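Hey,

Quick one before I head out. I ran the complex with 6R9 overnight. Inputs first:
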Amino acid sequence: MADASNRSGAIDTVMHEERLFPPPAEFAAQARIASFEAYEKLWNEVAADPEAYWERVGREELHWFEPFTQTLRWNEPYAEWFVGGKTNASYNCLDKHLDEGHGDRTAILWEGEPGDTRKLSYADLHKQVCKFANALRSLGVEAGDRVSIYMPMTPELVVAMLGCARIGAVHSVIFAGFSAEAIAERNNDAQAVAIITADAGWRRGKALPLKQTVDEALKKSSTVKHCIVLDRVNEAVHWQPGRDHWWHDLMRDASEECPATPLDSEAPLFILYTSGSTGKPKGILHTTAGYNLWAKKTFQWVFDHRADDVYWCTADCGWITGHSYITYGPLSAGATCVMYEGAPNHPDEARFWEIIERYKVTLFYTAPTAIRAFIKWGDEHVEKHDLSSLRVLGTVGEGINPQAWMWYHTKIGGERCPIVDTWWQTETGGVMMSPLPGAIATKPGSCTKPLPGVIPKIIAEDGTECGPDQGGMLTIAHPWPGMLRGIWGDKERYQEVYWSKVKGMYLAGDNARCDRDGYYWIMGRIDDVLNVSGHRLSTIEIESALVSHPAVAEAAAVGRPHELKGEAVAVFVTVKGCEPSEELRKELKLHVRKEIGALAQPDDIRFTNTLPKTRSGKIMRRLLRDIAAGREAVGDTTTLEDYSVLASLRQDEE
Ligand code: 6R9
């Protein structure tokens, strides 16, 4: 069906979803933004004059040691927000609430995997953060220095982040499942001066040896002078005097007095590494004021947050969701947050529902990959628990298929809770598109509408704007406060990756379409990045890891649909100097695990004599994806061993 519009390079739509769920009347009656008209009015107001809006909201929502003099300085693609102002993210998350008389309010309700619990008020958290900031200073850490964090999900992880922010040190949180190699690469790229870790962390009843992995990484991280170690599990650890320091020793000696440093609005707040389409991970840079404001405001909008809510985001602080919606957004908003250390199926598959019942969680934010696991584990785990406290359910990380959406809606939400399907990225700092729960009717599988201040445009390959229901590249037309400010140490790459393909627009890297009601549907990534359990993995990184093994000649990694993970990693490998074997298959899986981390471990490894390539030498991943998924498109070839079909397809291509 090659109609004229398709020649522009737009993508055909195959998915249709007509169901519409308006905000429940009781919910809308008390929501902050309580009708579609109210949303539209606000969206139009911000779109008409973004600077006027953000000037007002910026002044109101953040604490200013010195007021800013210009709201936005835009020198495409470089944005500066709240120019000339001085603020501090740790002040906005902590001191501001103490100043307003809310020091007693609970900040964190923490639960360790073995069942130990802790409760920290805003005053408690403030005290810990002040002490820790002084501890960092006692080691010589200064404003602008980079500090890596490789920790389990304990309150100390949040303390470490805010302690850095308090003195202007730039944190780089590395998810505690990454390998020593990956840690070293990040330490070196950021030139980190210190790393904060723990002896170990709990995961499904086992103690993961974090310090040991860091020791390995530090052999190759020459800039790191100090390693701070939290005693979480009481594991024996190797100790290097002078370099290694126990968290509790530093804290015991540290003063509670630590005024937050007034920092420039554009002072770097953190770097967070994410996979790109080349082998080297990108250090996404976020700065202080704009990011902080965006995290706070979007949290309030998307969850319709109020003071008596109990909010739980199940992400890990190793990902952007944990940065924006465990630490900076909710704490700036003065929210009471549940934080959980471990696995959702330990000691059994009802753990999450048990937590929701016990803490009377009202706002719950999780990922489609988790929802698919819950569905597989069976409804009986859910039905044992009283989930009537819930009022808003959120999802993030990848698209949620309508079937999983409906299950979430009925089984978890009791058909009464709006679902906020939030589309955003590490780069965007916070949510960009999502229903406002009291204002926007939802459609299962759609992230619905842009938040105020977000102007999405869908662009076809030929650069023209797509019409309704035509898929194309998702771009954003105007700078927003939470946008990334660059890629650490690589000015050109920032411009090239995000600002070169479509003139004047931020290129998100996702394909999307907008339907006739103005609802957005994300269609997947335009590059070769995989999305495994909501985590982005670059095919090239996995391939590079495989090729670093002596037996591998060439490798191609693709995603294939997976019931739980969304996408599973399938790799095609040509061997050298040996014969393919079951043993080698196992060895290669472990090799990738060691090089990158457990989440990149291939699910399938298929040996082949040759990989299909285009004339320019690019691996034809599209074809391999079909084969990996066992799709009909390639006839009866459901395994790569049948590569005669590949050979003929390659001839077709030429
Ligand atoms: C927050 C986060 C970003 C990529 C993004 C897109 C996918 C995230 C989504 C979604 C469809 C949603 N993604 N949320 N796709 N619907 N609600 O996940 O950041 O790790 O940087 O990943 O994830 O492909 O481009 P990040």
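Residues 122-138 form the longest helix (17 residues).

Talk tomorrow,
K.
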